Amino acid sequence: MSAAPPTGPPPLTKATQDALQGALAAEHAALWCYSLITAFLPADQLRQAGDDSDAHRTLRTAVEKTLSDAGTPPVSAQPAYRTPRPVVDGPSAAALAVVAETDALAAWRSVVERTGSRGVRRFALDVLSAGTLRCARWRVVVNSPPAILPFPGRP
Known about the structure:
mainly alpha; Ferritin; globular
């Protein structure tokens, strides 16, 4: 009796799964941050915040599916997160968006560094590219040059 060759992508390693769990946790946190900041942002920044929130929601769903398909229960969102500074107005809300994007970039960079899966690495690089642009837009809003850091996601 011969076994049939495996079909589909190779299984994810433990290191890849752990990195994806970290990215998922960062996506949960980013979504929570965006839900908070929309209460404080001026009207002209709400569309950008909504688009960015949608991007994080799409990423969260994709990572949850990837982990579930690998047989790993996805990490759950926390009921709330601690902000580095109180969010009380538009500038502090935009500053929190920079923090959320920066934290997500660090998590996705970890995925790039810790996976051996070409497909996962390619996806994470695409996420880093898109996230770098989101972060740059918010860095411009809070006047925090440079808009694009030399090594996005680097601690």
